[in-house]
Design brief:
The chain is built from twelve helices and 14 strands. β13, α10 and β14 form a beta-alpha-beta unit. The strands form three sheets. The chain has a seven-stranded mixed sheet, sandwiched between helices. The protein has a five-stranded mixed sheet with strand order 9-11-10-13-14, with helices on both faces. It is of the alpha/beta class.
Length: 317
């Protein structure tokens, strides 16, 4: 099995910030809006280089979405930035009516997603946002796994016509994807080859799944790990091809098991080839305050949880 290693840890939000800065230098139509969280969204350098293309709306997220929708009419490509909780739950009506319904070219960019927001607790963590966004007609939903992939995704969505939800996180996590890897919206990436089980993971759970695959290999279990960075549209082909070989699947995500990647995969299986599936996700619960590592362990979102799910699903084959 191919081994993935890393030499540094970086937060995925910095990948967004660096991607946005690069877009500021290469695409004159890109503009940015923020709801009083410039530092948290790593927008500082973009603002320094492009002050006339930045709009600080303050703690008024609904207004931010409305302004962004309006900017698209003049040909601008607006990137909105705030925490995932406020990017989706607080402004769902505005995204639905002003962006999705009319197909506006707004990029809703959301940091601090999931429980790894950490010590700020349940009121600021969100585990429902993927479900909220994927249910909107025409909305593309992207959840990259590390700094490099988040930067690549940020660059890619600027060239994509239509509304996009881009989800990323707060903590520093391993950087393991190549910095020159092509990012293709809607196309999963097979990271390892395996014959006993398919592990389909997104976001922070991709690295955890790779660690789980190494543990499983030591126990004689061959796991195929697939990085699903685009949850909608889902790359059904790569999933169905893999399970035709392995016969069972585990989905892994930092999100509620209701409404997330796992349910999208389950629908694909039900419509094509019913297959044993286990879910690594939060179990219909809110989070709480704690360090990211503590919360990932408590809510069953780490490599050990993936290993347990794999053993369970294999027993069901």
């Amino acid at each position: 099995m191919k081994k993935y290693t890393y030499t540094e840890k970086k937060d995925t939000r910095s990948g967004f910030g660096d991607g946005l800065t690069e877009l500021g230098r290469t695409n004159p139509n890109v503009v940015a809006l923020c709801a009083d969280l410039i530092g948290s969204l790593k927008m500082d350098q973009f603002i320094k280089e492009n002050p006339e293309r930045f709009f600080q709306v303050g703690i008024a997220e609904a207004n931010m979405i409305g302004i962004a929708a309006g900017l698209t009419i003049g040909g601008k490509i607006p990137f909105t930035g705030t925490f995932a909780n406020f990017s989706t739950g607080r402004v769902y009506d505005q995204i639905r009516q002003s962006v999705a319904y009319s197909g506006k070219n707004v990029k809703v960019c959301a940091s601090h997603a999931g429980v790894t927001l950490g010590e700020d607790g349940a009121t600021h963590q969100i585990l429902e946002d993927i479900g909220l966004m994927k249910m909107l007609p025409g909305m593309t939903v992207i959840n990259p796994c590390d700094y490099n992939q988040t930067k690549a995704a940020t660059l890619a969505i600027a060239d994509f016509e239509g509304p996009v939800y881009l989800r990323f996180g707060r903590p520093k996590v391993p950087v393991f994807m190549p910095d020159d890897a092509k990012f293709e919206i809607g196309k999963g990436i097979q990271l390892t080859e395996g014959t006993d089980v398919t592990i389909v993971a997104t976001g922070h759970l991709v690295w955890e799944s790779l660690q789980a695959a190494e543990q499983l290999e030591a126990e004689g279990i061959s796991a195929e790990v697939i990085n699903i960075h685009t949850i909608k549209p889902l790359d059904e082909e790569i999933i169905l091809k893999s399970i035709a070989k392995t016969g069972c699947i585990v989905t892994a995500e930092e999100h509620n098991k209701l409404g997330g990647l796992g349910e999208s995969v389950a629908r694909t299986l039900a419509l094509n080839t019913p297959t044993p599936q286990e879910f690594v996700a939060t179990n219909d619960t809110f989070g709480e305050s704690g360090t990211p590592a503590q919360l990932m362990a408590k809510y069953g979102l780490d490599a050990d949880a993936v290993v347990k799910a794999v053993k369970k699903v294999i027993s069901r084959k």
